[in-house]
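Lecture notes, structural biology module. Today: joint structure prediction for complexes of four components.
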Amino acid sequence: MAAPARHFASDNSASTHPEVLAAIMAANEGHALAYGADRWTASALALFQAEFGEGSAAYLVLGGTGANVVGLGALLRPWEAVLCATTAHINVDECGAPERFLGCKLLPLATPDGKLRPEMIRAAVGGLGEDHQAHHARPRVISVSQSTEYGTVYTPDELRALSDVAREFGLLFHMDGARLSNAAAALDLPLRALTADVGVDVLSFGGTKNGAMGAEAVVMFDPALDEALRFGRKQATQLPSKMRYVAAQFEALLRDGLWRRNAAHANRMARRLARGAAEVPGITITQPVDANAVFARLPRGRIAPLQERRSFYIWDEAGSEVRWMCSFDTTEGDVDAFISEIRAVLA
Amino acid sequence: MAAPARHFASDNSASTHPEVLAAIMAANEGHALAYGADRWTASALALFQAEFGEGSAAYLVLGGTGANVVGLGALLRPWEAVLCATTAHINVDECGAPERFLGCKLLPLATPDGKLRPEMIRAAVGGLGEDHQAHHARPRVISVSQSTEYGTVYTPDELRALSDVAREFGLLFHMDGARLSNAAAALDLPLRALTADVGVDVLSFGGTKNGAMGAEAVVMFDPALDEALRFGRKQATQLPSKMRYVAAQFEALLRDGLWRRNAAHANRMARRLARGAAEVPGITITQPVDANAVFARLPRGRIAPLQERRSFYIWDEAGSEVRWMCSFDTTEGDVDAFISEIRAVLA
Amino acid sequence: MAAPARHFASDNSASTHPEVLAAIMAANEGHALAYGADRWTASALALFQAEFGEGSAAYLVLGGTGANVVGLGALLRPWEAVLCATTAHINVDECGAPERFLGCKLLPLATPDGKLRPEMIRAAVGGLGEDHQAHHARPRVISVSQSTEYGTVYTPDELRALSDVAREFGLLFHMDGARLSNAAAALDLPLRALTADVGVDVLSFGGTKNGAMGAEAVVMFDPALDEALRFGRKQATQLPSKMRYVAAQFEALLRDGLWRRNAAHANRMARRLARGAAEVPGITITQPVDANAVFARLPRGRIAPLQERRSFYIWDEAGSEVRWMCSFDTTEGDVDAFISEIRAVLA
Amino acid sequence: MAAPARHFASDNSASTHPEVLAAIMAANEGHALAYGADRWTASALALFQAEFGEGSAAYLVLGGTGANVVGLGALLRPWEAVLCATTAHINVDECGAPERFLGCKLLPLATPDGKLRPEMIRAAVGGLGEDHQAHHARPRVISVSQSTEYGTVYTPDELRALSDVAREFGLLFHMDGARLSNAAAALDLPLRALTADVGVDVLSFGGTKNGAMGAEAVVMFDPALDEALRFGRKQATQLPSKMRYVAAQFEALLRDGLWRRNAAHANRMARRLARGAAEVPGITITQPVDANAVFARLPRGRIAPLQERRSFYIWDEAGSEVRWMCSFDTTEGDVDAFISEIRAVLA
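The predicted structure, tokenised, for the full assembly:
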């Protein structure tokens, strides 16, 4: 049988990084109290705090949608609403979990590239006034994805500008950082420079798409949210039972910068792919390749034949736009072979 | 440093069984489409169907509370209520997750041993009548835990009697089988004899407390529930991203009866512990030791000193009752040492 | 055709008091901005504040269940729970609306007479400890019904004792005052002596059962709750559109003490009924007749024949206990005729 | 003091029609069982059935937002979504009540005039496919407002086309008919021609904006929805206690066509206003005046001075667009005086 295929469908198609797997195995000794009262969790939480700063705290959870609903739930009362991009994962890819669990309304804003901008927020909340009779769900949280679902990355200045407008209007600032590692690697900045330092209140921090087996966390920068996060996590069915195995994954990612090495590699592969594909006649790269995603337009009839060679997703059927994701285990060989396949199919 | 402690706090303090760990490692090859479109998941689902019967289907999830809310959610409309024992995990140990996610009311019924009986159901629903004006949440589901939170086990006849009363009153039948393996091992019966064959509609099937690292499933016996379970799982934040690693765990447990060997061993250790402890003056075993839990009453002042030697939980502060759980990795040596400690502390 | 029957089914079987009806008609002039921006509402809110004190504010709503979910919603986050009597309206007669709308768990406590006592609260919350892992919904609100569903009345001292235990454990204090008027009339105390003065945080104040056509209010004693009540009311579908007609009803009830006259009369009729019925052999009055309800046990076979003469409800089928409610428009003639009917049926 | 002002803010600023008030007074006799077991309710429900057809049934409720959440709740499971216009009342004016109560996602579609069209539905649901992994909330209901929030009216053919596309994609059809009477009057058609006859599954039928004091109803055309509507109404806190007074209002509106006379008059006043205003230089009428609303653009600086003379709402701050609503009690004199005021302010 041939070697197992690597494709470009998603970074959660990737395997588990060997160092993460080793950490899981090392945690498999004896008994450990469940739900986080174990030494692996203590160690992982300390690494999180070292990474994100003194005032921060992490809450380990099972999945990315779970991280989002737990984190947003700590910031929102049910009559409050979330401003997000129309393309946000919370808006399109979570089956309405935020509405279901939080009872809250999302207020999606159209963007060209998945990135919110201060003027969009102003336009959305500026005219609301006092609303004495409470007819409208009250905008309360700005939620950004970093890197975005379009593979674009907010600079610290862009994030700070959003944070400023949030403070101006009494809003809180949430970040879906399922791919924050890719953004930090792209900008060559520490994680805290994109979160604590720019006014993020609550962060979903992803491990799964960056080499973990299944490990996500909610990180908060305001100790007053502790109770909401602890009880919200349990109530959202996101409290891991044998938490040591989730903790061990984060230990592996955070201890010696594995998270950055993995993300930087995935980003590099995406740039390589974009460069190569852009040279193929008929291909247009449609978004800046800031992180590990490549968005491309190609002739409609060529999409299906190319998918037969390698898995990937159509992003916009009408616009004939596709998404190619790279991950920590994508190799230069994978990329170059795929470019050849693209060239062959489009010839 | 001494060997890592094994204690009696809970079966989710246990480690991961080496065969499960090996299966996880074996699944770590190449790329696999996320969310279940992979060969490990296909294989695990086939094993589930072989175990539970033609008409059944399994949905892999991340946690036990998650399995319960997803499964109950497929059976309930929000104005319907769940009849359960006051001691049920869904009632006392899930932080209100069922109420939060389902919007439903639980109607807890007092039991001596964690087991519902037909006459309790009759008393609860018999007098309700038509309720034309809809003042009362409508009882719709009977939920049992098998084995129960008291370590007791329903016989097939007891389950069938509940199922009969359910049909009589137009109710559905849900089983929280976080420890179904222990019940099946105790009765030396196949899993289906305690589920499909006695009229269970939806089952939460637990792997985590029986040697898995983190693997639960919802099993349904009515194909009409498929959409509710698929969408409910996603919306409940319980759809595993890299599902192959959850599937691999179930493959290990289900392929050659590892689930039964693990559970039978844990049950054996509980009986050994109960036998030994019962001989210690001052100890009363308070519940039948059908599965892997031992409930005991001991002099109030002796609880804390004993807890200093080995972790375990107080079950009923007022009644001076404690719970000792055994797991697949509890050894005869652990049990015998603990009996000695009990004897020493109570001397 | 005979004069329309008056019976003993419920105080919401009663008609609308003529003064309330006159106030509604008087409000029917010209246009008035909807949702409360009208002069009748301003006037009613001022009367509420005069009645309940400077720090209070009222929010008019459409129904009693609505008042309860709006008021509780201002006090609770979704992982928090409500301690209430098993007999509480919120627990048995609202079809699970609190669970549905709030996502919260109710923790019902058994009582002999519908009244919670401090020791019940202590027993329920005393042993909970910190719950670092958040397994249990967090008790946060004590909810009492005044008068209770058993027609019993809390004294100010009893309420203050509950309020004290609430403060001791960090709980808030909610009162379902659908029949608060009856309690205040029974004790000959101002409304504030049973609410603001004894530490109630949020009150549901009922008009409908005391002569209104359909008028309820949430009264709060902590200005910080304003936003939660305004937005919660709208979101709970309880914001009256043409609010002036609700306001006019409360103006009629509050302006010259009509609320007290109505309630005192209903209470008097209940005492008269209890006195007369108690003399009938075979009848046992089962609860103190503090307010406008009479609970009685009578021979099982005599219930249905008596119901054929006058409508009333069976309270406890098994215990052969019935409820007879009096209202503002119950006459001495109605009561005496009913006593004769009871005597005839039991003869 | 001058005669009370009549203005153009909203049709729920209007008073109660004298015939409705008379019916309320006539219902104020003796006792009547609460929650609908009374003769006025029986009579009103029969009138509803006569109006909407054999297979229909009405459920009286307290408010319009309540009618919408109850009706939609009977059609939806929580993972299902509602396709509606961005301008729909359920989307912008209900403070997120649908999301809160139903847990469902709304999928708003942009329209030029508040009216959905089949091609918008096709574009929204056509590409969804099977969604085996359930990432996206599942479109399940099309909800239209008739007449729309822009005062436009769907013809029967337009409704039938939407109903056809609904059936094609397995969707259900909901109508927010808070102003259905205005639409039926505008088209000179019976109510059933715009509902039962064109495939509506569930209707919110408004009385309050058409001369009632506070009376709304959910009308369903599929008997299988009965349980969902009865229990949903109670759980949504929308079951009127003294229901006879709500029923009496509908009796007055439905018995002799008062609903149509009221609506036709309001429509006529809107046309008169639009005609007169259109002649004022600087005024542009921005939407077809199909029913009782007039939308107009006027010079930004003239809005506030005009509002000082008569209350009305700004609809679109940026576009300098306002809304003028007429109601059953708007007189020709009111309209002509307002046109003079407009002329004066814009001069």
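Point to remember: The longest helix of chain B spans residues 258-278.
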